[in-house]
Amino acid sequence: VHKTPSTEEEIKRRHQYISPILSLSYKEPIFMSRSAFQYMYDADGNTFLDAYNNIPHVGHSHPKVVEAGQRQMAQLNTNTRYLYDLLPTYAEKLLSKFPNTLNKVFFVNSGSAASDLTMRMAHAHTNQKTVMVMEHGYHGNTQISIDISDYKFNNPKGQGQKKYILKTPIPDTYRGKYTGENAGKLYAEEAVKQIEDTDHPIAAFITEPIVGCGGQVPLAKGYLKEIYPAIRKQGGICISDEVQTGFGRLGDHFWGFEAQEVVPDMVIVGKPIANGHPMGAVITTDEIAESFGKGVQFFSSFGGNPVSCAIGLSVLEVIEEEKLQENAKEVGDYYKSILSELQKKYDCIGDVRGSGLFLGIEIIKGKNRETNRSLAHHIKNELRNKFILISTDGPDDSVLKTKPPLCFTKENAKEVVDTIDEILEAYYQKV
Ligand code: PMP
């Protein structure tokens, strides 16, 4: 591997001034210098195909988004205590992407802040405290977000499960207890029993429609349709975390909850909403916004500022103008089909799952489905050495994750799959 001379030096400076708690990708971390659309360039001028980063949703450094930010930054940037047209204009445009009942939006600066805010609003609306969370779920880095994130509190170094949390098993049709067409119903039956048996009424139930940190696990078909009514029966509210799955990435739908044929009471958005500019939001109903409005004032210094609104608006426009949801569908379907072909060739590919340009490839030891973290890491690092970026995640970090900018092409997808094929061929020749 060709190494940038200052890589070691840069790592040392990070540790000196920040902390090794900031993780780095790859055995050989990359010193990045530029990016454009689905490509990133290191300090030596090497070009990486980005099959991983979902935050630059419409493409790294997209000129329309860059221009929107630059123009607005030079004109006015302030906070919501003044009137400016961009706030309601952007809010209206964003809300037009949701079902009619979701008609209020609160802007913050990250997915974590949005998750945190949903909890505050849920308590304000229900006056209940228990929160039902998904096994392996992740919702952010604030204390409350960590409380509701099994991925963090259940880590050996984590804080453990708080008393007000009720965790429900992930309805995983590959690795879980139930498989097949009825799995969603069967998982839901157990979760509904948990809901009915709880001593304290549930304030909120939060999950992603495809559990990203859990290893790109789509909730079994029909699952949420059974859970939502049980939560609402207790006076609780249903939250969909669309930070990873939203904005057309899934191809068939603009939001992940649509695939489950439900309408949540609150939606959390972040990451792709502003293509990398720090932004998050909570979208909710009139009734919940009204309950929240009766409490202490809500203010975010940066949330909904004119620059953020201009950037967010430009992202929505680019998604439409460039038909990126349609591209996610077309390229994603093709990508998944050639990955499924590759699965036939290698026993170590246990499962190919996900939707649109949000896919997971589970690497296993053989037919018994034992996780294979070391091979997953080998593939990830070899791809990096061959200038392709993907990552790993899941409870054993054994699932390859691919969720590229939505301008990804079929040729890009083929390059990734051909390269994984090459890596595995070489691997099995050596073994
Ligand atoms: N929810 C989900 C599903 C996420 O993946 C993340 C970030 N990985 C967050 C919330 C938190 O977002 P942020 O990092 O912007 O605070």
TrEMBL record:
Q: Which GO terms describe its molecular function?
A: transaminase activity
Which cofactor is recorded for it? pyridoxal 5'-phosphate
Looking at the keywords, is Transferase present? yes
The keyword Lipid metabolism is assigned to this record: no
Record key words, sorted? Aminotransferase, Pyridoxal phosphate, Transferase
Family statement: Belongs to the class-III pyridoxal-phosphate-dependent aminotransferase family.
Record's protein name? Aminotransferase class III-fold pyridoxal phosphate-dependent enzyme
Q: Which organism is it from?
A: Aquimarina rubra
